Every structure is written in C-alpha cells, then in structure tokens.
Amino acid sequence: MNTLKKIKILFFVVVLSPIYTSCKKDAPPEAKPLEISVVKVLQQDVRLESEFTGQTFGQSDIQINPRVDGVIESLNFNEGSLVTKGQLLYTIDPLPFQEKVHQAEADLAEMQARLAKTKSDYDMMVPLAKMNAVSQRELIAAKSAYEAAAASIKASTARLQNSKIELGYSTIVAPISGLIGISKVRVGDYVRPGAASVLNTISDLGDVRVRFTMSEQEYLRIFREITKKDSSLKGAGKSISLVLSDGSVYPEKGKISFADRQIDPTTGAVTFEAAFANPDQLIRPGQYVKILVVTDVRQNALVIPQRSVIEMQGIYQVYVVGSDNKVDLKIIQVGPAYKDGYLVTEGLSANDKIALGGTSLLKSGSVITPKATEWQPGKTEN
C-alpha cells in the first residue's frame, strides 16, 4: 500500500506541476500608476481685460468733394497709392471757367475806361462850377457818375477774382498726404458741388483711431474705481491692446484719446476712441478689431489652467494631488477667465498641486505618477 500511495502522489505532482506553473505565468502584471502632468496653483496679481469691438479710422480721413460743377477731364493718381499734399488729383473741364475769367476781365476793362471818363468830366466841372459856368446840378451829376464808376470797378474786380477762384477749383489737389482710395468717378462723369458728391477719400495712416463702445454699467464701475485714491486702474487707459481679425495681437500699444460727451440714449453705451501708432501702415480704415482694456486688477489671485477644470452643469471640479500622490476630485468656485486660465475664488490654496487630466482613466482616489509641469497664463506649457 505504501508503494501504491507513493506512486499516486508522484503522479499528481507530475501532472499538476505544469498546470500550476502555467497559471503562475498567466497572472496579469501589477498595473503601474498613471503618469499625469501636475501643476501648482499660482498666486499672482492679475490684470483682467475686457474685450470690446471697435472700428478703425485714419488719423485724418478727408473726403474730396468738387466745388464747381463740370465734366471730369482727367484722373492724375493711382488708386490705392500714397499721395502728397498739393498733388494734382482731378481736373474738371476748365473752359467754362476760363470764359468767365475772360468776360470778367473785359467787364473790368470797360469799367476802368468809364471811370477814367467820369473822373475827367468831374475834374473839368469843378473849376467851371466855381466860375458859375455850369450849374451845381450838373456838378453833382458828374460827381455821382464818377463815384458810380468807382463802385463798378470794385464790383468788376470782385467778379474777376471769383471767376479766377472758380477756375482754380477746376483742378483738385490733395489737401493732405496719405493713402487715397478708389475713385467714385471716372473721366467723362459730370459732377457738381455738394456734401453727397464725394470723389474720393484720403486717409493719413501715420496713426490710426479705433472707436469702440462700452456699456453704461461698465463705464460707471470703471469710473468709480479710477477715481479712488491709489486706484490700481490708474494709467490703464494708456496701455490698450488691439487684436486683429486673424486673432493676432497688434504689436503697438494704444491709449484712450477721449470719451464721448454723452451716453447714447438709444443703446445705453458711451463711445471711446483710442489712438495707435501705425508705422508699417498695417491697419487701414474700416477694419473691425477687438480692443482689450484693463478693467480690473486682482491682488494675489489664485490662477489655474482652464484645461485642468472639469465643468458639469455649472459645477467646477479639479483633481487635487495629495502628498501620497493620490488624487481627490474637489469642487471649486471659479471667477473670471484670464487668458487660458481661471481665477479661483474658493476651494484651493496657493501652491496646491492639481492634475491637468486629459484622460478618462483618472478617478478620485487614483494613485498617479506626477509629472511636474511649469505653467504660466497665456504661455505654452513646457
């Protein structure tokens, strides 16, 4: 019997050993902790900017209007080019105005001849009247004719000057140096004076103006803040940022030039104008841009990346990393956005560590391998 038991035991050992070894090899390896990027909660002074939509204008946008009527005879510039002050732009057919000048010159010559005759007659009458050779009535008539001729000289001279001015208006020159636009008229078009008759517009692009509106409530809040003693917003109007339509930030800083004298009763907004240098003439009139104005300054604010925040039905949460590398999902209160971050008003402390997340495998209570990451608002993560 003992021999038989030994054989059975040996059989079980031989048969079950490979099975046991196979089960041991197939056991899953222990899971490694997830490697998650971790950042510190920043504490810093934050200058919050409000965004407004604005439209650009040239430093001077001068409309070119005709001052006499007539047919456009020539265009003497390249549309969309730079022109200089005094440069010839348009000519209106001058023949009608030259004819007026010639007629006025003839009238003046006639009046000068009449003046000479009446003066001679009057000079002859004076000594004769003293000798009673002519009546006082005749003397007075001669004097009146002379004075009337003198007055006619002044009127004729004025008409001649006016005719020359009209002739001068038949050539239209640039009132300022700047960029000229597309002509509204062509050679052969008939034009006449009037505010609605615009030939072209010249814009001085040395500096540009941007007009934007601000709500009455925002204006009142900022005004009250600026008027406080030692306000942190003092000087904010001298560092205005401009964002172009492609999302790029214009390199030059601007400053607020003025605010309108009244709040528009139809919109409840006040209009502001900011001035920007335009050395490369990148900005042109008529562009729609965004204006960024510092409207609030938060001292020692807590800032975290927006991508670290989980938002669900108005509740904001972040994964806080403990000293044991275990994460805890925590509800926080967020304030305004700041660049690519949020200001945190409740729920976190300075230098707390939070996970950037980005994976659905991360859960509250998970142990992670933290990967320290430097982060600054508006800057690419390293």
TrEMBL record:
Cell compartments where the protein resides: Cell envelope
Known InterPro entries for this protein?
MdtA-like_b-barrel, MdtA-like_BSH, MdtA-like_C, MdtA-like_HH, RND_pump_MFP
> Where do the Multidrug resistance protein MdtA-like beta-barrel domain residues begin and end?
208-294
A Pfam family of this chain: Beta-barrel_RND
- Domain Multidrug resistance protein MdtA-like barrel-sandwich hybrid, by residue range, is 62-200
Q: Using the record's annotation, list all stretches that form the Multidrug resistance protein MdtA-like alpha-helical hairpin domain.
A: 102-170
- Which parts of the sequence belong to the Multidrug resistance protein MdtA-like C-terminal permuted SH3 domain? 300-358
The record's NCBIfam families line, in alphabetical order, gives: RND_mfp
Write out the similarity annotation.
Belongs to the membrane fusion protein (MFP) (TC 8.A.1) family.
PANTHER family, sorted: ACRA/E-RELATED COMPONENT OF DRUG EFFLUX TRANSPORTER
Q: What is this protein called?
A: Membrane fusion protein (Multidrug efflux system)
Give the species.
Flavobacterium granuli
